[in-house]
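Example record

One chain of 94 residues, shown exactly as stored in the release files.
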Amino acid sequence: MSRSLKKGPYINQRLLNKIKDLKPGDKTTIKAWDRSCTVTPEMVGFTIGVHNGRQHFPVYIVENMVGHKLGEFAPTRKFVSHGGKMAKTQAKAK
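Predicted structure tokens for this chain:
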């Protein structure tokens, strides 16, 4: 569910200030714990380390990500395959 239009998107100002201090094309990773922060056009071209609850997941921001939340690009759960002996034999066959 999105925020009210009168409020506008949620953007972390400290994160935006850190991005403005960097030069375009800078390869340093900016750590961010704020997964609910909306991606803005100023963030395009930078790498942001989004916290997934355990570590910072590096996310390179591109134009198609504008308007989405940072947390959408850092998975919080690791999928461990289902099955047992049968699934292992099928995986080896591929």
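Notes: The longest strand covers residues 47-51.
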